Amino acid sequence: MRDDPIVEEIRKIRREHTDKFGGDLHAICEDLRHQEKESGREYVSFPPRKVSEEFAESSERK
Fold first, then answer.
1. Range of the domain at 55
2. pTM over 0.70
């Protein structure tokens, strides 16, 4: 597989962000929420989708 410089840059930024908080997922998420608020951009979230009956039945069989 060919190296993609954009993907590598994103991975580098993620690693740096993770290292900044010592891998503490709670702190990372809190920082990301803070960045969203400070950005002034409008963010939307959608309610969870309902699981279709067909998928629910197939999952129960496993």
1. 5-60
2. no
**Residues 2-60 pLDDT 10s:** 889 999 999 999 999 999 999 999 999 999 999 999 999 998 889 998 888 776 666 66
Residue appearing with tokens 């309902």: 50
| Alpha carbons 30 and 32: distance in angstroms, whole number | 5
Match 């067909």 to its residue by tokens.
54
Calculate Rg over the CA atoms of the chain. Answer: 18
Domain count, the chain: 1
The tokens 């900044």 sit on which residue?
A: 20
